[in-house]
Amino acid sequence: MPRNRFAAFIIFLTVFLALSPPLFSQEFGPRGPEGDIEDWTIIESSYATIYAERDIDLRNVARKIDVSFARYDPIEKTLFYDKGISGAEKLANKIDIIVRKDKKILDMHPQGFHIDIRIYESNKELRGIYEEIFKESKDHKAFYIHKFRTIYVSLPNVSESVLAHEIGHAIIDNYFAILPPMKIRELLACYCDVHLKD
Is the domain defined by 26-195 classed in CATH 3.40.30? Predict the structure, then answer.
């Protein structure tokens, strides 16, 4: 009897998910709203494609992200001490360091992990993107959308702490086949932030 109920539940769940409307409008394409590609500086790292609005100083962004904890890690310290590289390379290295640390903290290593990170010049632009996607107004420092595999953040809010939290969400959402409840995901993402510098 329990086996029949389980089978019926699985069939119901499959039909329900197949008939459910998509969470977001399809007008944004696979990765969300982006505007003209010429408006962005695009940087590739091992784990991310980073899009920064064209006027953003990448050295300034890299300076705002403190990964000094990496100097104690035998693998990461070579990247940490790498001098004479461009702002784009420094930013890419720092993102990769945070991704690897978050994976280690969570002990989650999703295969083929790769995300987009979009850095907007102002909080106002970030609010505008959130409103465009969700059709409601909220004031977030940053947010992650699993459907687009994209982290959205504004330049004033860029920090290792904010990125560790949002990258934590990305790792968690890409690790589980069936996502845990939102409160559990939020706790795990906070855990990344809290233990980043351990």
Answer: yes
Long-range contacts of 96-100 (CB under 8 A, 24+ apart): 96/45, 96/46, 96/47, 96/48, 97/67, 97/70, 98/65, 98/67, 98/160, 98/163, 98/164, 98/167, 98/196, 99/46, 99/47, 99/48, 99/167, 99/171, 100/47, 100/75, 100/76
Tens digit of pLDDT per residue, the chain (198 long)?
455 555 554 554 444 434 333 333 223 333 445 556 778 999 999 999 999 999 999 999 999 999 988 888 776 767 666 666 899 999 999 999 999 999 999 999 999 999 999 999 999 999 999 999 999 999 999 999 999 999 999 999 999 999 999 999 999 999 999 999 999 999 999 999 999 999
Query: Where are the chain's structural domains?
Result: 26-195
Q: What angle do CA 94, 98, 103 make, to 5 degrees?
A: 150
Q: What is the pTM of this model?
A: 0.80
